[in-house]
Amino acid sequence: MFDKQIGGGCHGWIPMAKDGLLGAVCFAHWARVALQARQARTEEHFKVKCQRLQEARGRLARRGHRVAELLLEVPREQIRQKVFQCWQDSSRRRTRHARMSAQLARVQALVDRRPMTTAGVWDPKQHGIAALAMGPGRKVRTTRRRTVRVRFRPNLADMKRKSSFSLLDQIKRPMPGDEEVDGDKVKLEKLWKLMDTYEPNDPESIQKSFARHLEYSLACTRFNFTMEDAYRAAGLVLRDRLLESLNDTNDYYRKMDVKRGYYLSAEYLIGRHMQNAIANLDLEQPFKEAFIGLGMELEELFHEEADPALGNGGLGRLAACFLDSMATLSLPCWGYGIRYSYGMFKQEIQNGRQVECPDFWIGDGCPFEIPRPDITYPVRLYGEVTHGEDEKGNWCVNWVGGEIVQAMAYDNPIPGFDTYNTNNLRLWRACPSKEFDLDMFSAAAYADSVESRRKAEDLSAVLYPNDATYEGKELRLRQQYFFVSASLQDLLRDFIKRPNYKWSELPEKVAVQMNDTHPTIAVAEMMRLLVDVMHVHWEEAWDLTTKCLNYTNHTVMPEALEKWPVEMIERMLPRHLQIIGELNLRWIKDLQKKYGDHSPVISALSIFEEGDIKKIRMGNLAIMGANKVNGVAAIHTEIIKKETFPEFYKYCCDIGKPDKIVNMTNGVTPRRWVHCANPALSAIFTKYLGSHEWLTDMTKLKGMLKFKEDSKLHSEWMEMKRECKAKLAAFVKEKCDLDIDQDALIDIQIKRIHEYKRQLMNILYVIHRYQELKKKSPGEREKTQKRVVLIGGKAASAYVNAKIIIKLISNVGKVINKDPDTSKYLKVAFVPNYCVSAAQVMIPASDISEHISTAGTEASGTSNMKFVMNGGLIVGTMDGANIEIREECGEDTMFIFGCLEHQVADIAAKAKSGHYPIDSRLQAVFQAIRNGDFSHGEPEAQAEFCSLVDRLCNIQAAGTWDGDKYLVISDFPSFIDAQARVDATYADKAKWCKLSIQAASSMAKFSTDRTIKEYAEVIWGVKPAVRPLEDR
């Protein structure tokens, strides 16, 4: 029976290819499965193997391009023909086996001697395979045909990345040294032996792990579970592997006593975790095979994951990209933040208006996070400060009373790409110090009995609570201090665990980065912990603080820097107010010695801002307490020096430290934003460059430039864009119920809704384009470039004008999309609830994207980098990172318009004297709005839209909040000209494709790998600590 069943399986495979090489590939796959069947020890196991053999044969028939790993280009139609031959001629004699085996050996010999990474691309023609496949005497066809990849699976060890987790079954885990063991070593050896090996990563082991978690972790039955259950079980399978790596990485860092970096950020917009983690671990193929074998597609599981609502915009997305690069570069760095139960809000659009709904993303649990109830720290709020003596009789300060909140850690492993290092994002959840008051409950005061718990949980409940009220501002400050205090306590505890530690060594072992002003209370908290808790002398504590802390500024507008009322700080953090007051007193005395008692520099540099409400300027505190201060783009850093903090920069120059303020141009991670978001583009890069090395060294993308004129690459590139647009069309249909033309130019602006980002100018241009279309005859319209305009982003719940802009965009879309004269040529939609997973669909599909902030207002921007990495071109101003992208990619890849940063003041000055002309085309747009063309008979909307227009038309107030603050009217004519250049360039598809390739291939500077290397070398002094593995 055994031979009969195995032989029958073979007959179904062999006839599939009359051409020798394809037959060899098919035979190899059959032989591998057949060998597994022959090794079966029981008849039951044998039956399972035979069933899998038949299933595998069926999968080959359906998907000829998935046989295994050898990349061989074969025309799709030829594959189909061979599949049908397989079933029609399944009784072929086995005499062909020997001949096919010989051909297979020739293929294997070529595979064995070629260098190759996991996803490296091998050209068969370079090794004479094309001639082998065609047979002797046959001519090689040179006509262009659509091709597919056929894969063959020999021993794949030589094809994996050097740090592929799929090879960990060949590795044993590190053992602790004697000094690391607490307790009886003999008793622990048995446990160590059981945990001596890593979880295996072959498909069958992954399936077993999945089944175990499905039943034993989630309590699902094998007969009744949902796709959501399957996602959570798969997430736990992945978490097992991440945990092993995280624990061993942390042990290695401790063993090597490395200097560590700690990144403090109020938000991390990390996106869906599963796909990115699987890709970084190099487990894509085994996970795919495992779940296909279980009747599931891995991509279906990806879509079950909710976007973690731990951030809002570019600040949080940047922080997430930084974590990915820190791990990929094997830097011993952790992130710290807050584990928000609710995101800022889930955005819904009802009757064109933004409606904020609770975003309880953690409701069903997150399979990747690791609760750590063993790691909690007390955080005190309110209370009072007393003076007394310590146990040694020394004078000391005590902060007592108030309320205590417990910060409980939740760890989120962050794996690197092509490394065995896995770092950590530690998030803090607020818990009460006293869970429940039984006396109050017994007295029927049920609400009061849990009041302390409710108040504590408020701290980590919502990202960015509305701060339009005093209570909202107070909650924000409590949040910021809560996570800063817990994080500093945690990293100092780790430092003092070192044997024979000395405080003088702290700057050699710790570097802290404060991401914007949210965590800058860290300056005062570090001083409190060192002076009051660790009893370090004031002068030494200040020296340690200023050497360990660093500050990233993310805004060019002074009014956006956080300032807290002194009264609020005094009530909530009384000891910190004393510390800040003492720091400021010493600081002012130093300034007076240098500049005199009455210099205006002193008031500008003081931490305290005088006025009706005395405030503490957190930006000033951060700069004074930081070792390095950095901007996030070249132009932004210069603005910091000249406009935001000019007095500080002058002071730094006067004391011989002009390099205290440095530039660190932002970036994004290509793993998330190309490899995961746009796998078709990733495959193109890998094919033409010969390996995946570009994912960790984007300078290698320069190698694509020599192909930018290649018609074959153009064809593949345009096919990639078509696939991305097809996904976008399905997405827009689902989210907006709008059908879009996939052949149209896709124009996207997705950002936080803010007046300086000028979504208003974008929609005013759309109205102008609509008006121009209406003027044209049907014949003239046919010659017009079709365009789909998509705008997305959230407006802060208290930002009235931003929410009116959303309503205007929605109403304009309703009019244009329903107009039979124009809807074929122009469509516009507001895409609700913009998030990372939405961006991963929208960005790869764009032809053009809008980055149109007023010059001098955008610190950097990172969405511009993501769009260009995916082959999109930019319409933009000379602002933020646009300037550097243009320098890298070439002037012809960007459609620049608008005034320059140094011209803004002159424009505002001329407007004040009455010279601020409004272009006639914009006047026509304003008139249409005033006429109610886009109000749909809604009086409230009409009044709101007219208020926007009227304020813009207050020409003498241009450049101020009473008029056209962000110079929309001034830049509008050149914006129209830029869009006309877009249409003209897009009409020449070959030229557009060339520019798209040129831009995407020139983005090496904007990888966060480059950014983080610079942070590590220039600011932190942290070096890579690559975790080695011990071979068996």
Explained architecture:
By secondary structure, the chain is α/β, with parallel strands linked by helices. Helix content is 49%, strand content 13%. It contains 41 helices and 26 strands. The chain has a nine-stranded mixed sheet, with helices on both faces. A six-stranded parallel sheet has the order 22-21-20-23-24-25, sandwiched between helices. The chain is globular. InterPro entries: Glycg_phsphrylas (IPR011833), Glyco_trans_35 (IPR000811), Pyridoxal_P_attach_site (IPR035090). It catalyses: [(1->4)-alpha-D-glucosyl](n) + phosphate = [(1->4)-alpha-D-glucosyl](n-1) + alpha-D-glucose 1-phosphate. Belongs to the glycogen phosphorylase family.
Structure characteristics:
single chain; about 1050 residues; alpha/beta; 9-stranded mixed β-sheet; 6-stranded parallel β-sheet; about 50% helix; globular; disordered N terminus; Alpha-1,4 glucan phosphorylase; transferase; carbohydrate metabolism; Pyridoxal_P_attach_site
Q: What integer is the average pLDDT?
A: 84
Taking strands numbered 1, 2, ... along the chain, how are they ordered across the largest sheet? 8-11-12-5-4-13-14-18-19
Helix fraction?
Answer: 40-55%
Any low-confidence stretches, pLDDT <50, length ≥5?
A: 1-19, 37-43, 61-77, 79-84, 86-159
Shape: globular
Main beta sheet, described? 9 strands, mixed
Rg result = 31 Å
Beta-strand content: 5-15%
- First-to-last CA distance: 39 Å
Number of helices: 41
Task: Find the structural class using helix and strand composition.
Answer: alpha/beta
DSSP strand count: 26
